[in-house]
User: Which sequence fits this backbone?
């Protein structure tokens, strides 16, 4: 990232977004994560006045595993982050990294209009922001 070229969130985001109902249990959510290869899931709005939620691996580690709770007895809505900080697809990845640091988050939905069009994470920011790693 030493050159001055601008890289936007749209260039590095994961466009595949998996959404679940907040009423499912954490065990089922983890099965979904494993099946789709995701480290976080978006949680559906209950209605048009609601906000999106997000469930990340870290939520499960901190609020289920560390507290010795049974994942099949904890609902996603009990441990998810809500409301979530979101980013715009045209945001520069440098600003997104700063936002993550200031807010203490590692993932954010990418929202265009009222629709979630992707997910961005520190992992994707780093991989997308570094010079060609294949060379």
Assistant:
């Amino acid at each position: 990232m030493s050159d001055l070229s601008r890289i936007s969130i749209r260039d590095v985001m994961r466009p595949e977004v998996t959404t679940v109902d907040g009423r499912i249990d954490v065990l089922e959510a983890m099965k979904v994560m494993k099946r789709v290869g995701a480290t976080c899931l978006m949680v559906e709005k209950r209605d048009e006045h609601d906000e999106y939620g997000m469930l990340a691996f870290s939520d499960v580690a901190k609020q289920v595993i560390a507290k010795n709770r049974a994942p099949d007895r904890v609902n996603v809505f009990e441990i998810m982050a809500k409301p979530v900080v979101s980013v715009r697809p045209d945001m520069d990845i440098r600003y997104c990294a700063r936002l993550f640091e200031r807010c203490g988050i590692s993932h954010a939905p990418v929202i265009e209009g009222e629709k979630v069009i992707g997910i961005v994470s520190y992992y994707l920011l780093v991989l997308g922001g570094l010079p060609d790693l294949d060379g």
User: Anything to note?
Assistant: The longest strand covers residues 115-121. The helical segments are 9-12, 26-36, 57-65, 76-79, 93-103, 122-129. The domain at 9-129 is CATH 3.10.580.10 (CBS-domain).
